[in-house]
Design a protein that fits this description.
CATH architecture of the largest domain in chain A: 3-Layer(aba) Sandwich
Distance between the termini of chain A: 39 Å
Oligomer: heterodimer
Bound molecules: adenosine-5'-triphosphate, magnesium ion
Number of helices of chain B: 21
Number of strands of chain B: 0
CATH topology of the largest domain in chain A: Rossmann fold
Shape of chain B: globular
Number of domains of chain A: 2
Number of strands of chain A: 14
CATH class of the largest domain in chain A: Alpha Beta
Number of helices of chain A: 11
CATH superfamily of the largest domain in chain A: P-loop containing nucleotide triphosphate hydrolases
Chain lengths: 316, 518
């Protein structure tokens, strides 16, 4: 491990053109060691392209990327040693048992025979596959295949794991289990770089995220930075009135910080730009005019909304 | 390349996986049982019918039985191996297991070799099952163990060849169906020709192949061509498969070019050794009839193939540019084989020149022995024929260069090697047809012929008489070559592609080391 280098992934001006189309149009970012980093974007944003370049499976049109200091273009062998890559689609060989599958990849990774057994038992313990060693891989459920694939990427003890949409197609329970597996890996000192379409799916475990769209990086930073960015924006409130009241609009427009008031029958919504601690002014104003309301919803203007506001949602 | 790491760790992983995956299936057991049953029953029926008539001696009968065994086995090989080979690469691609394989640090070459050994392993397994049947035939006597082993060896070599070609098809087409069709195109004729020969000439005589070879030894020329040819097909297919599986930006062209150079040297060497004695320029008139035909086929085919090199992608592959930039000493050694820029044209021209270097060498040899003696005979025939010979070689050589230059031009325009080669050769076919048509329509003028040097040569030599070759044809070819090269350079300039330097346009945007301050 190269501790002197703070970033385990360095990406500079990465371009990838397919004919006239730029799948990546100059992406740069650094990922520090020991974090779980989410790489988020809509369909066709360029996530898989970036990941394949990082895994030294594709050569960028321009720009550079380094894994722990190794250049993905000039030193692909080094790069492959340092990372474990799990593709978006998990393919397995029919007719092999879990044990044989792992043995095969241990040999492919050129682990010496003496280390193979212990490496395999380590990874199956970590991924809870120890009871399934004799099962044939193609009968495994999708979640188990996902685990097997993860186990395979861990065999050569890479410091970095790059996972392309690992949670797609998993049921809620499997997702939660997968997340705890990832946090366990972080605890073991590994860096995890994973992609997803869905920001909220990653928010519980990610330390940092990047959001890409159309080959551009539209946001990048730690989870706090991203969340601060949300807080700095307006918060939307939805209030259900006991009965329709046309005066409400006039009442609210008096209060500084309220904007975009919308009244549709008993449903009232407005944007709040002041600090959350000042919202009581609104409730007080309504109460003083005897406007009764039953339900208040502070729109969790969270990651989803950020995601929606940052991306145009055009499918490419 | 191939020699190193023949059974290296990663290849072995593939072999083991292939064997486990294929042999464990019930299907494979059924195939083997069916195979054994078919072999057994065919041998049994034959045996009964022959013994009933008891027309043959037991020894001959035993040999015939063994022959039948091997014929059935050959059919099995020609069915099973193409299938296994055709799916070898495509299954990995279709099951999306290719990326994890490459990601695990395995190189395409290792995978290709692993697949080959895996297929041969399965073949072994399949062939050994009915082998005990063979031991029964030894009861009759008359069949030596050595003959049987030799038979096995031949089958094994045939299977290896079919497997290599199947893997090449699998890697190049990336489609199982197309790969199977391609291998079948190769394997079925092989089966028919070899099967017909063996049944009619060998097994029906109550002997095995080894005995046949002993009774009727084959010309040494056959072996001189056959063994390198076989090795070429095997090694070339494996290298080709690796080539197709490596990205265009890799250094994949370098080993292919190195192999091509070796092949050219070997083939030209073989031509000199085997047909060299007939290749006497002084014997020009008879040469253009006999040896000339063989030579023209080789020359024509090699232009086709070389145009593929000349016209290949103008840009230097990224990996090559990077190897060069790092200034590794191998980058000096390999420079002749590096693709991109004018090197594509030069490399093809060098290979093309090897053929002519050899024929001119022949002439020099003949001149040094015969040439000095002839004036004593008072005959100027030798000198006359030599002049014609040199003229013919000059026309062919410059014509080839013009084809290569045309292909190079198309490469600079942005076409890939195969398309450029097809275009360049297509133009030649077009010119040849034009010249021939002009002659038929009596729009004939001597000068029209200059447009197509090969047609010119054919007409002049077919006349067989004193019809002279026109030296101007050489000038036309040279002019065309110059034109194409200047055009190519101009286009490369426009596209910002270096003609000579091993650089990659846009390379400044590709960081090779971490920028300062990171
Ligand atoms: N081999 C290719 N040839 C041509 N275009 C490609 C190729 N690979 C990717 N693309 C294009 O590049 C863009 C980015 O694709 P990529 O697969 O990286 O997106 P993604 O973010 O992974 O999308 P998804 O969420 O659907 O997996 C897409 O518009 C896609 O069409
Ligand atoms: Mg994707």
């Amino acid at each position: 491990m190269n501790e002197s280098r703070p970033s385990i992934i360095e990406v500079r001006d990465l371009w990838m053109s397919f004919g006239k189309k730029d799948a990546l149009a100059g992406i740069s970012f650094d990922i520090p060691r020991g974090v779980i980093h989410g790489f988020i974007g809509p369909n066709g944003a360029g996530k898989t392209t970036t990941i394949r370049i990082l895994a030294a499976l594709q050569i960028p049109t321009a720009g550079g990327a380094w894994i722990d200091g190794a250049n993905v273009v000039t030193e692909p062998e080094e790069v492959r040693l340092r990372l474990g890559y799990m593709p978006d689609y998990v393919g397995v060989y029919e007719g092999l048992s879990v044990m044989e599958y792992l043995e095969f990849f241990a040999m492919a990774h050129q682990l010496p025979a003496s280390r193979r057994r212990s490496a395999i038992s380590d990874v199956v313990e970590l991924t809870d596959l120890d009871k399934l060693l004799e099962v044939e891989v193609h009968v495994l459920s999708k979640g188990m295949k996902q685990r097997l694939c993860l186990a395979q990427t861990l065999l050569h003890e890479p410091d970095l794991l790059i996972l392309d949409e690992p949670a797609s197609g998993l049921d809620p329970r499997a997702r939660i289990e997968f997340r705890s597996l990832l946090t366990e890996l972080r605890r073991l000192g590994k860096t995890v770089f994973l992609s997803s379409h869905i920001l909220s799916e990653l928010s519980p475990i990610c330390d940092s995220v990047s959001i890409v769209e159309k080959g551009h990086l539209v946001a990048h930073g730690s989870m706090e930075q991203i969340q601060n960015r949300i807080r700095s924006g307006d918060v939307q409130y939805e209030v259900t009135l006991v009965e329709a009241n046309d005066d409400v609009e006039a009442i609210l427009s008096q209060i500084p910080g309220v904007s975009r008031i919308l009244l549709e029958g008993r449903k009232l919504s407005f944007d709040w730009s002041e600090d959350d601690s000042e919202i009581h002014q609104v409730w007080a104003a309504l109460a003083s005019r005897k406007v009764a309301f039953t339900r208040v919803r502070r729109h969790e203007d969270d990651l989803e909304n950020l995601f929606m506001s940052l991306t145009t949602g055009e499918v490419q | 390349m191939i020699g190193s790491n023949l059974l290296g760790g990663s290849s072995y992983a593939i072999i083991q996986k292939e064997l486990i995956v294929r042999i464990r299936r019930t299907r494979s057991l059924i195939i083997q049982l069916v195979f054994a049953a078919v072999v057994g029953s065919v041998m049994w029926i034959y045996s009964i019918s022959q013994l009933a008539g008891s027309r043959t001696s037991p020894e001959v009968h035993a040999a015939q039985l063994v022959g039948i065994y091997f014929i059935v086995q050959m059919c099995a090989i020609c069915l099973v191996i193409p299938l296994l080979a055709a799916i070898s690469i495509t299954t990995e691609l279709q099951a999306k297991t290719w990326d994890p394989l490459i990601g695990s640090g395995m190189r395409p070459g290792q995978i290709v070799r692993g697949k080959l050994y895996g297929i041969l392993g399965i073949l072994f397994y399949l062939l050994l099952l009915p082998a005990p049947l063979l031991s029964l035939t030894t009861l009759f006597g008359g069949v030596s163990v050595l003959s049987i082993l030799f038979e096995y060896l031949i089958h094994f070599l045939a299977a290896t060849l079919i497997a290599c070609i199947g893997i090449l098809s699998s890697a190049s087409t990336r489609s199982t169906v197309r790969a199977i069709l391609q291998v079948a195109l190769f394997a079925v004729p092989l089966l028919i020709i070899a099967g017909t020969f063996l049944t009619s000439e060998v097994y029906s005589q109550g002997i095995l192949l080894l005995d046949y070879l002993e009774s009727a030894p084959i010309d040494w020329q056959f072996w001189a061509w056959g063994i390198p040819g076989y090795l070429f097909l095997v090694v070339g297919s494996l290298m080709g498969a690796t080539h197709f599986l490596s990205g265009v930006e890799s250094a994949r062209d370098v080993p292919i070019r190195a192999l091509s150079l070796i092949i050219f040297l070997v083939v030209v060497g073989l031509i000199l050794i085997t047909v060299g004695p007939d290749l006497q320029p002084g014997n020009y008139n008879s040469m253009i009839r006999d040896v000339g035909k063989l030579m023209s086929v080789f020359v024509g085919l090699s232009v086709l193939g070389l145009a593929r090199f000349a016209g290949s992608e103008a840009r230097v592959p990224l990996r090559i540019a990077q190897i060069r930039q790092r200034g590794h000493w191998t980058s000096w050694l390999g420079i002749v084989f590096f693709p991109g820029g004018i090197r594509n044209f030069l490399f093809a021209t060098v290979l093309w020149g090897i053929c002519f270097g050899a024929t001119v060498g022949c002439w020099l040899m003949e001149y040094s022995t015969t040439g000095t003696m002839l004036p004593l005979n008072g005959s100027s025939l030798f000198l006359e024929n030599s002049a014609k010979f040199i003229q013919m070689q000059g026309i062919l050589f410059t014509w080839g260069i013009s084809v290569l230059a045309t292909a190079w031009f198309f490469g600079q325009c942005g076409f890939n090697g195969i398309i450029s080669a097809v275009l360049a050769n297509g133009i030649q076919v077009g010119l040849a047809m034009m010249v021939a048509t002009a002659r038929e329509l009596s729009l004939w003028s001597e000068k029209v012929e200059w447009l197509s040097p090969p047609v010119h040569l054919i007409y002049r030599s077919a006349a067989g008489t004193g019809a002279e070759m026109a030296p101007e044809v050489v000038l036309v070819s040279l002019a065309l070559s110059t034109l194409m090269i200047i055009g190519g350079v101009l286009i490369a300039r426009r596209r910002g592609i270096p003609v000579w330097s091993i650089k990659r346009s846009g390379m400044d945007k590709l960081y090779l080391k971490i920028p300062e301050g990171n």
